[in-house]
Amino acid sequence: MWKALLALQVAAGQVLQVSLPDGQARVLVETTGVAPDGIVMDAGIVYWTTMGAPIQDPDTPGEGGQDFSRRNGGLHALDMDSGTQWDVVPPGTIITGKQLTSDRAGTLYWADREGHRISRVRTDGSDLTDLVVTPADTGIMGECVGVAVDAGAGHLYWTQKGPPKGGQGQILRAGLQLPAGETAESRTDVEVLWSGLPEPIDPHLEGDRLYWTDRGAPPSGNTLNRAHVPSAGTPSETPEILANGFDEAIGLAVDSEAGLAYVSDLGGHLYAVPLPDGPVAEAVSCRIITLGPLTGLTGFG
């Protein structure tokens, strides 16, 4: 079972370390870069993405008026032992770094929202590769947000949330390797597993189930969901809602040994959600701490 969580404070630009189960928090990284979004720990190194500084439309206050299309996102790292901090890829490589994951074998995967792509790189910064690139003319419908990998089965999963509260979100799957003779822009092995979702964000694969947060409109949005991963060519089952009532749910970390999922939201709350073995009788959520607007989340023991 995990002893702590790492949570990203998006407005403050910090990494917080939250001890479990008491919820005591301390600042692990004072300055992450602008608008951190995805985080993962691998072999004692903490990695996180940043969205970069947006251009704010003065006539549209808040998140809706933010333009993140400048190429100023990033992928960063911290050695927990030495305290050394560095950039994994050079500045200007990423447009808008979103959710991040690792295959636990030295490769990082992330979604680049305004970049319309899913990319990967070795933890030493080598072998930067685009795995999925959606057409620019698809606009917000082609923006990639969350990512999960199944290295054993050779599968990549990602979310495209669509317009805010739009009910047009999708979860997709493709191979971890590009089909022979194809490119990230033209690959033919992409499957749409779920569509018409409120606004799916952060997926997490645990066994034969995919879990994900959704920040869309209630009753199906602002939820934690799960469903069995379908075999190729078979219909997807209707997702179960495990918890609801979040305030713009974003980050997700699943501790299967403890039987808990942790969810963070932009309202600044961190939740622990018990994971039932069988079908869900009633969606629940349990807030454990309030920390300020939160995005990415990961756990370690």
Please tell me what the overall shape is: globular
Report how far the terminal alpha carbons are from each other.
Answer: 6 Å
The number of helices is 0
Instruction: Tell me the major beta sheet.
Output: 4 strands, antiparallel
Q: Helicity range of the residues? A: under 10%
Class by alpha and beta content: mainly beta
* Radius of gyration over C-alpha positions, nearest whole angstrom: 18 Å
Looking across the biggest beta sheet, what order are the strands in?
Answer: 3-2-1-26
H-E string: EEEEEEEEEEEEEEEEEEEEEEEEEE
As a percent range, the share of strand residues is over 45%
Average of per-residue pLDDT values: 96
Describe it for me?
Helix content is 0%, strand content 49%. It is mainly beta and 301 residues long. The strands form seven sheets. It has a four-stranded antiparallel beta sheet, with no helix packed on it. The chain has a four-stranded antiparallel beta sheet with strand order 4-5-8-9, with no helix packed on it. A four-stranded antiparallel beta sheet has the order 10-11-12-13, with no helix packed on it.
Task: Give me some keywords for this one.
mainly beta; single chain; 26 strands; four-stranded antiparallel beta sheet; 301 residues
